[in-house]
Amino acid sequence: MADYHVHSNYSDGRFLWSTIPAAAEAGFEALGFADHCIVSERDAMRRTRTRMGYNLDRTYERRREALASFGERFDLPIYDAVEMDYDRRDESEIEAFLDGAGFDYAIGSVHYLDDANVHFTSPFADKGEEERRALADRYVDELVALVDSELFAVAAHPDLLERNPVFRGLLGHDDYVRIAEAFADSRTIPEINAGRVLDDYGDFHPTAAFLDVLLDHGIDLTLGTDSHAPEELEPRAAELRRVVEEYGIDPVRVV
Question: Is the N or the C terminus of the chain less surrounded, counting Cβ atoms within 10 Å?
């Protein structure tokens, strides 16, 4: 197995030197560092990148040097990647950055609606059912646009809304089919993301119902632990092994 979605101290994770040996001990055959990056110049997103430190566009060359130096010390292929926050309004800026940076691959993710992070309940808690359904529809629109753009090799946690109790259960079969059809026509592939399977959310992305639809459409999948700390890698690797064995999935190698 390869883990294509790990974070480091170049965004909101831990040091490279502690994460790489932990991945090898967890049994991964390759490791991809995909730190968060926001390139939007909209005021709200500029504030977010300042507060969260999602500035890989300014530091990726330094991280690339570090990855190259560690690659000489560990018998493990290490990939230089990025997780980009996607919004259709920022597509030209994202494309320009990716074209110039030359990463091994790029992961795209939809984390924000109306510049509010869909992880958090507070921006959406006062919304009525109709408003929440409309926001869920917009999330699907953004995800499909991400896939259609073909800017990314991988689409991260494609049903991220499920983590938020405000939105949980709003995505249904028709949404899954629409997303699966977009993947079927794109080079972008979804990941099986283990980032919260052992935490408060307690499930994979995609959920079992969504995964069934993706497999019915013949969609290839890759793997990501979405780990932010070394100790997360081994238990999440075990969960990924379990799900790929249960479903008979042969994960795609991105690089």
Answer: C
Rounded to two decimals, what is the model's pTM? 0.97
Number of structural domains in the chain: 1
CATH number at residue 55: 3.20.20.140
As given in the structure block, the two tokens for residue 97 are: 């950055």
pLDDT (0 to 100) of residue 72: 79
Query: At which residue do the structure tokens 């699907």 appear?
Result: 140
**Please, what sign has the CA dihedral across residues 242, 244, 248, 253?**
negative
Residue with tokens 């494609």: 158
Domain span at 19:
2-247
Mean pLDDT of the region 59-84 = 94
Question: Is pLDDT above 90 for 73?
Answer: no
Is there a domain that residue 90 lies in?
yes
Contacts of 129 (CB under 8 A, 6+ apart): none
Q: 206 preceded by cis ω (within 30°)?
A: yes
pLDDT for 175 equals: 98
